[in-house]
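Please produce the structure of this protein holding zinc ion.
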Amino acid sequence: MSPPETDTASRLPGQIHPTAQQAKRDAAARRDQSADRINVGTLERVGSGVVGTTLTLLGLLMLVRRGSFLGGTSLAATGVGLAYRGATGHCAGYEAVGVTHKDASLTSHPLGRSIEVSRRTRINRPVDELYAYWRDLGNLPRIMRHVQRIDTLDDGRSHWVVTGPRGTVEWDAQITDDRPNELIAWRADPNADVPNHGYVRFQSSEANDHGSIVEVSFSYHPPAGVVGAAFAYALGEAPSQQLHEDLRRFKQLMEAGEIATNHGQPRGRC
Amino acid sequence: MKAVTWCGKQNVKVERVDDPKIINSRDAIVRVTSTAICGSDLHLYNGYIPTMGKGDILGHEFMGEIVELGHDVHNLAVGDRVVVPFTISCGKCWFCEQTLWSLCDNSNPSPEKAEAMYGFAPSALFGYSHLFGGYAGGQAEYVRVPFADTGPIKVPDDLSDEQVLFLSDIFPTGYQAAEQCNIHKGDVVAIWGAGPVGQFAIRSAFMLGAARVIAIDHYVSRLSMAEQAGAETIDFSDEYVFDRIMDMTAGRGADAVIDAVGLESHGITPDALYDRLKAAAYAATDRPHALRQAIHCCRKGGTVSIPGVYGGLLDKFPLGAAFGKGLTFRMGQTHMHRYLQPLLDRIRNGDIDPTFVITHRFKLGEAPKAYDLFNENKTECIKVILKP
Ligand SMILES: [Zn+2]
Ligand SMILES: [Zn+2]
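Below is the modeled complex.
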């Protein structure tokens, strides 16, 4: 993914993201050359295999217990997927989010590879409202499940406190581009525990009466390297799904004024 | 408070649980005055729906009095008497704005499971598993109603609970099934399944101008309830349905057909979800026998209305017959919010008295007995209501 500050200014709204086109070409190329399907590093393959096999067993155990049907199947499915990934060195999830380095491993890249995630959603509200909510960074912990706190500092700087797979991580970030009702881009301090950068883009789609399109795109280096990423994936923390859920909370809050929940409602003990 | 909880297969209990409280600003708390057991609750009862949790509070057909309001609900007041639709809708998303209420984007707190199965998630429902939001249901003394400014309808004091309670589900569901038939004056409408929803579909089809309604079932009591509404009946256990319908329509077929078999299951067939694992091998999950027969009996160019019975994959679906006869298909969960006011008006005008369908009344504390009776004796038992 190209950093937003390099080329987003020249891009027309609604134009397909060049990296999305690139990702499509990459995917096509990968399909053409099955030998090239390996996009998971060696150490991670071992990790995936072990975690995957364990999860499959756990999932099947849950299946046997009553009431754990979906939990069991999804866990087992995740396990089978990881085991497959470990065995073949191919990860559909990585392919989907555009991770392509087949040679990545802890030994060749001390920080692991960067993980790139991008997602778009439609929100039935005008862009100025969406931009204003997001620009007040202190709002974001409400929609981002893993962000505990964001302190706004001066000059577009902010301090982030985030729950990671191995405890809390913190970093300082800088807004690198800020175009009202259009785009906010940020970059974390390069020495941060979790180096990351990304942007959120707001586009009006009033022409077809569908409100606005919000696109979030970011990339980061997972703190525990690629095996950490494999564990995060195994535990349902696939970054793409996480982003999907964060964007859904944003949509619910902007459209309905609240995030739907059933936490805190009564239930019996049987 | 007292509430009916799901404790596993054929095991419901009446328990003391915490009172519900306002969680979000658009919530209301309703003190339930009447609630009903739906045929679809039997699928929960029989343990077919895999995302139920032990201790979940049942019930999606209920009404009562507002006792508490979140600070963003301005159209209701404490003390108002309301009927609550079983689908939960935010009223603000694109789908709600198109009046596609049961397809609301924002009411399900955990739509991931439904998204995995369907690509997208429909709206949440009260008391109907975690696939549909995991909200506590209304077979209780009190219930929390999310988005209360959008769903509940105030009802006048001169109408009894029993007259308006079925606005919560089965009357609108039967009505939408008939409305989807695009009935013209003189049409013949054939309805498979004469359970509670089928009964309301029969009466709604007449209201919408059908000349004749044919009800198909095998429970004598249900067929005679259909006859009381003016329907002609076919007992499929001793007649050939297709031949009879050809006979009755002089070889033309029914102008529209409604598949209300197991319709009480509102959008989920138990086997559909239960067979989710089997579906890994892409074996079929739903059993569309009545639907196949309905498609067969529908005239060329006619309409097939399916009030939301199916949850999974269909085996041997006669697409060739549907294509060859140029049929129109209409289906889905009821867009409840569209129908509450017009159907309340119909009840007030005396076009219909929904109490006809009630066969049994119990106290809330007798819920285990009521569930057992409804499950075991579908000949006698058509609709059960519970009074907290
Ligand atoms: Zn119902
Ligand atoms: Zn909605």
